[in-house]
Amino acid sequence: MDCSTCGLLDKQSTPGYCLRFKKVIEDYNDGKDCIYYFKEQYEDGELLTPQQHLLLQNHDRRSKKMQGPMR
Fold it and tell me: E strands, the chain, where?
């Protein structure tokens, strides 16, 4: 689990660009324990774009927000 396999990394630019932190990533091992790591996902056999991964992650985080204990 490092930046090179994260769905939020824009690999089209050189060096890679992290959309979550909005910064250039030169050493992919720096993000070994990143809490925002998002596994690359495929839809209809095609890899989603980094922007789509970011939207999915934001939606997932918002859906978990304000969930208290179940009664």
Answer: 9-10, 16-18, 23-25, 42-43, 46-47
C-beta separation of 37 from 31 below 8 A: yes
The token duo for 10 is 């824009």
Judge whether residue 67 has pLDDT over 70.
no
In this structure, is the dihedral angle defined by the CA atoms of residues 28, 18, 61 and 39, taken in order, positive or negative?
negative
Tokens of 20: 């979550």
Report if pTM > 0.90: no
- 8 and 47 Cβ atoms separated by less than 8 Å: no
